[in-house]
């Protein structure tokens, strides 16, 4: 029991150092990512010159004035023309979303869950997808909640993508379209899309309109402050594009992605700071590494990253599998395959601590590599906590499988605790508790 406590403490330290610490340091605070909740929110509408109608600068997952998802692009022009530009003209990948590809997240900026939703976050079996509401004042009648006119995406459903919702005026004479663009990635632990932010999507959409022939970037594309700062990385400034009276000949899509900055560390500088005791400890740790440790690490990396890669490949190159079928095929690899493979390989290792550390560090590395592939720059606190718990749980499973842990019984305290924690976290995640 004492040894199990030591292993648990070490795993907790590893989870915090390699996952919790960096994530909490670089991620926005809870106040930055949480929606603003007020008893009587002040409703300030965005108005357009020459139009009777106006729109509130947020959209919501329910018919309530929750400041959750900020609208960030407003286009003056005929709605059918704007949709035509985004979906049919140009050489890019923008396309209208299939019914089963609708946004899989129950709340676009649901970093703090406060509503009931489907276990997986997807409206399984319902073709309508997830609905978002916008508050529009027609000008002559009472204000009303309306649903999106169209949803567009650019990217991979099971990878990363930009997602746009478009809302148009209910008055046929008013020529404006409000858009909400954000970047998101699919989270295989939660089976939902996680929104990464709105700023980069806004910049990409803004650039596309600026590249249109006949558009004056100084006159036709401007920034206006609509006061919807708060959720995610929204700063309250939206893009306003004026296409009224413009003859559009071409709409070229040229998406751009930010490049990660790679910092080089000098090995000599690290080695110079090592003491004689440190060197002996490193040599002892190196002597304890065996081939099975590497096999365990490579297996966890291959299974975790393989699910991401195979999911994107199946989405792109198979027509007979629906999005739901792909999830049903691959999610068991995460939920069952990784812990079972970890137990099987770790059962050939002698030391409990070695097996636990190897498994937990490998899963942490796999998670960070996956975030790097998806270009995720920040994580909400609930996701950080969930990842820390699964890292600890897998380490306990590996430690409980080692030979010294199974000398008396296969069902030892570490194994039972690891399996229980793994199952509790994954089930709790699917039902929205993490």
Overall description:
This protein has 434 residues and is α+β, with helices and mostly antiparallel strands. It folds into 2 domains: 2-29 and 267-430, no CATH class; 45-242, no CATH class. Helix content is 42%, strand content 16%. The chain has 11 helices and 13 strands. The chain has helices at 2-26, 30-33, 79-87, 199-210, 267-272, 276-288, 291-317, 323-346, 352-373, 381-401, 413-430; strands spanning 45-47, 54-60, 69-70, 73-76, 95-96, 133-137, 144-147, 150-155, 160-168, 176-187, 192-197, 221-225, 237-242. Strands 4, 5, 8, 9, 10, 11, 12 and 13 form an 8-stranded mixed β-sheet that branches. Helix 1 (2-26) packs parallel to helix 9 and helix 7 packs antiparallel against helix 8. The protein is elongated and about 80 Å long. The two termini are 29 Å apart. Mean pLDDT is 76; it is low at 28-40, 103-129 and 247-270.
Strand content: 15-25%
Mean pLDDT: 76
Elements, N to C (H/E): HHEEEEHEEEEEEEHEEHHHHHHH
Q: What are the segments in which pLDDT stays under 50 over at least 5 consecutive residues?
A: 28-40, 103-129, 247-270
Q: Give the N-to-C terminal Cα separation.
A: 29 Å
How many domains is the backbone divided into?
2
How many distinct helices?
Answer: 11
- Helix content bin: 40-55%
E-strand count: 13
Describe the global form. Answer: elongated
Biggest sheet: strands, sense, closure?
8 strands, mixed
Indicate the radius of gyration in whole angstroms: 25 Å
Based on secondary structure, the structural category is alpha+beta
